[in-house]
Amino acid sequence: MAHKQDHGTSCCCCLFGILWKILVALIVPVGLAILIFWLVVQPRSFKFHVTEADLTQFDFYTNNNTLHYNMVLNFTAQASAFYEDARFANYDMVTHMNSFRQYKKITSPMSAVFSGQKLLMLNNEQASKLNQDKSDGVYDIYVKLNFRIRFRLGDSISRHLKPKVKCHLKVPSSKSGTFTLFQTTKCSVHF
Ligand SMILES: *[C@@H]1O[C@H](CO)[C@@H](O)[C@H](O)[C@H]1NC(C)=O
Ligand SMILES: *[C@@H]1O[C@H](CO)[C@@H](O)[C@H](O)[C@H]1NC(C)=O
């Protein structure tokens, strides 16, 4: 009886032992690969800035709840632009990231055009923020960039990564009398 129980326990242990070894065998190389990759590429390659923003129109008409907008941003990706959490535009890059190679320390300027009109339901808070921004002549615009990117280290090329880049911009309206210049804005990057 006792012998049988011992046998059962050791078999159980041995099964866990095997599972554990498999787990370690899988996790360690993957972890190391990620760590090495991170140490080598991460800090330098990912700094994104919006260098220029030109807002020629940003008018919200309350009679038909329509936002008429026209904005040009210089940066490098596929983007969605948000105003006070209300999405007003999608922009698809003409240049696909696949065909775009970013070598170290080379920055490739690109620009995105957000232009059109959009039916928006703004709540009271959003509407008063919009009025405030309008009188300031500077709009708080939140831009999300979606990248598809591959890193290249010597001859090895990583799989596609999809980092998320978020930019909180203060875009001066070029129509407003106040001559505020757009400040180059650094965006946050998350993988
Ligand atoms: C909304 O109303 C404004 C002002 O009356 C007008 O200029 C604009 O063309 C209208 N937009 C649409 C989409 O009807
Ligand atoms: C912004 O993009 C436009 C169009 O591509 C270009 O003509 C202009 O020089 C760019 N400005 C900066 C500051 O990169």
TrEMBL record:
Primary localization: membrane
Entry's localization field: Membrane
Keyword GTP-binding: no
GO terms for cellular component: plasma membrane; plasmodesma
Membrane-spanning intervals of the chain: 12-41
Keywords: Membrane, Transmembrane, Transmembrane helix
A GO biological-process term: defense response to other organism
Protein name: Late embryogenesis abundant protein LEA-2 subgroup domain-containing protein
